[in-house]
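Figure 6 in text form: structure in, sequence out.
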């Protein structure tokens, strides 16, 4: 009996030792050590940074690129393309097979040269370029969901390029059962983009009840609906608040009157052209007027602002945001000198 017990005990000890040795050999129960992280920043202004991380007893590496983007890399060798210039704190966590970790942070400074990927300078008289713009026609369901009062057309009476600018003209007239007409033009199925810089120069209409906007919706709008698709309002304005500019984001839990956004008061919104800019990255969405920032929104992977969006330009009348229309209103236009998208 004693001999049998001794042999069984010895076998268990050997088995335990063998398993432990096997785990240790793979870095399983030994904590990682001597983590080294090197970064090589591309000199071609592409935003590419090559990272090499190595540590004893590590089986994987978690990279936090410092801009809200994370990635797990098994061998610690990876190239990441930053979408925007800046100085970023990169944190790397080396993990063993049993989950023990060691971390190290480094800083990288990246220069990204943006390229023009879409533009309309509105220099050719007549109708807007059909290769770039389509139209929503009619009243939409319930006034496009906002109880708006206009009927959207693509007639030259409501949209035309002349004198080097696009003019979207809202008019008081009885048309197909509506009391006003205007235009809503969009790049849906023609152009969309994810991340980048949107810049446009515009002069806004006057009149209480006018509601001009240059904005965007997620490409999956038709399949998931609003606000699940996300909405970025690059610029909104209402005639009842003449010089106040709105920059707004709509997404689940934050839509309509509960949307995220900021405002700024400027001078001469309807008598002078101003430059409106939005910088959209994986980490933030920043709004500017005349190069002065007025609102920054923190983007994240849980939000719908990490997919392609198409652009929309329109002038609505009345509605939930535009408010009651001045009975004396006759006609007014939003003029756009150019619109450009960079990446």
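Output sequence:
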């Amino acid at each position: 009996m004693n001999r049998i017990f001794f042999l069984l005990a010895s076998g268990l000890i050997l088995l335990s030792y063998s398993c432990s040795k096997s785990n240790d050999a793979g870095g399983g129960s030994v904590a990682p050590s001597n983590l080294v992280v090197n970064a090589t920043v591309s000199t071609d202004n592409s935003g590419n940074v090559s990272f090499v991380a190595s540590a004893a007893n590590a089986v994987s590496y978690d990279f936090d690129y410092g801009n809200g983007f994370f990635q797990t890399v098994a061998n610690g060798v990876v190239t990441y393309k930053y979408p925007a210039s800046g100085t970023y704190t990169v944190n790397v966590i080396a993990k063993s097979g049993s989950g023990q970790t060691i971390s190290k942070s480094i800083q990288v400074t990246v220069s990204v040269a943006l390229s023009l990927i879409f533009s309309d300078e509105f220099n050719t008289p007549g109708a807007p370029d059909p290769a770039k713009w389509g139209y929503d026609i009619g009243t939409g369901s319930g006034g496009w969901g906002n109880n708006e009062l206009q009927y959207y057309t693509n007639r030259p009476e409501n949209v035309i390029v002349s004198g080097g600018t696009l003019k979207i003209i809202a008019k008081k007239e009885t048309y197909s059962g509506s009391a006003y007409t205007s235009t809503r033009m969009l790049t849906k199925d023609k152009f969309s983009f994810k991340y980048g810089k949107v810049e446009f120069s515009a002069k806004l209409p006057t009149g209480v009840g006018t509601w001009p906007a240059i904005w965007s919706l997620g490409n999956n709008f038709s399949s998931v609906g609003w606000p699940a698709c996300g909405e970025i309002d690059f610029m909104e304005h209402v005639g009842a608040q003449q010089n106040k500019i709105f920059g707004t984001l709509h997404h689940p839990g934050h839509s309509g009157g509960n949307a995220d956004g900021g405002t700024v008061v400027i001078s001469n919104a309807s008598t002078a052209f101003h430059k409106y800019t939005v910088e959209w990255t994986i980490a933030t969405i920043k709004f500017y007027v005349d190069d002065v920032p007025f609102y920054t929104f923190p983007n994240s992977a849980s939000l719908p602002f990490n997919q392609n969006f198409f652009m929309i330009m329109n002038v609505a009348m009345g509605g939930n945001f535009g408010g009651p229309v001045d009975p004396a209103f006759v006609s007014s236009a939003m003029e756009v000198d150019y619109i450009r998208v960079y990446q």
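Caption detail: DSSP finds four helices and 24 strands in the chain.
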